[in-house]
Amino acid sequence: MEIARIVAASGGVVERAEALLEPLRRVVPFDASFIGLLHPDRREHLSLVQNGYDDRTRTYLGSTEVMAEVELLGLQRERPPMRLCDSPVPPQEMRSWAEYLAPAGFGEGIGAGLFTADGRYLGAVGLHTQSPVPVTDAARDLLGTLTPLIAHAVDPLRSVSVVAHAVVDAIAGVVVTHAGSALPLPGLPGHPHLVAGSAVLTAAAEQRVDRRVYATFLAPAATRPDPGGFLRVTAMAAPPDPPCQFAAVVMVSSPGDLHGLTRRELEVLGLLVEGWPNQAMAIELGITERTVAAHMEHILGKLFVTSRTAAAIAALRLGLFVPRLLHGGALSDDDAEQ
Fold first, then answer.
1. What distance in Å separates the CA atoms of residue 272 and residue 193, rounded to the nearest whole number?
2. Which of the listed residues 256, 277, 304 is the one where a domain comes to its end?
3. Which helix (H) or strand (E) is 280 found in, with range?
4. Are residue 7 and residue 130 in the same domain, yes or no?
5. CATH number for the domain including 114?
6. 322's torsion region: left (phi>0), alpha (psi -120 to 50) or beta?
7. Do the beta carbons of residue 278 and residue 293 sit within 8 Å?
8. Per residue in 205-228, pLDDT tens?
9. Counting Cβ atoms within 10 Å, is residue 240 exposed (0-12), middle (13-18) or buried (19+)?
10. 245 vs 201, which has greater pLDDT?
């Protein structure tokens, strides 16, 4: 089936959405088409496809009022596609029809919500005709059969999930939007570290600003027992595919080999990679410069390097540091002995 081939194709969501139009037209004839994804942070749809509408209607389809109409008609709940003739709301009371579609010459249409296999509402598809004759019941039902395939074709988390699979031992993960929302990744649970506004997500954003596409570091575990009391955090840039609402994928996994580094030494490394001198480290951590120097000596030995610069490079490469934002502040046992 041609639609199934398009759904399985690689490439971006816009390309797949546009490729679906011709086979869809053979199932449900239309003169104009709209496929939009619900914005993760705002009550509006991001257009993937808008063909056959005038400029006024195009602007309206991207407004917050469309989502209110979707909810009025119940399209945000899983239900069969709805033709204009099926609408529980008279067309003259629907702003989309009364003020935009009808004046633009459209006489009928059919709309459906797009849902993923796990029940997430992704957005909507709308197909409109200049003819006032509605599509047949058979065409409506066939469109209902195809909407899960359309949803899978345009699900923006498909490409994000490919990025997430780079962390093979991940135990949790989220995709972070540009506005800071944290959305679950299909197939992975949530985690206390990965909620909107958490210190870990803030640290991940700060690290990615400096490291660009990829960053990894350690965070104190939210619960014990975790190996070494740490979790590894990996932040990767989200694919820049339209509609481009995602900023990063953030995963947590087991910490891996800590090379015998203590919590305080990992905190010192966190300041070292930011370029802090020993005196400033001592003030920040509430310890003496002598203690900082001792930690630095231990770090060099454990990482098998001979300079601070080499230690910082190794820490960044291996993700062997705790960012300053995640420092606990209290003295650890090895400080008390200095």
1. 24
2. 256
3. helix 278-285
4. yes
5. 3.30.450.40
6. beta
7. yes
8. 988 765 557 899 999 985 444 445
9. exposed
10. 201
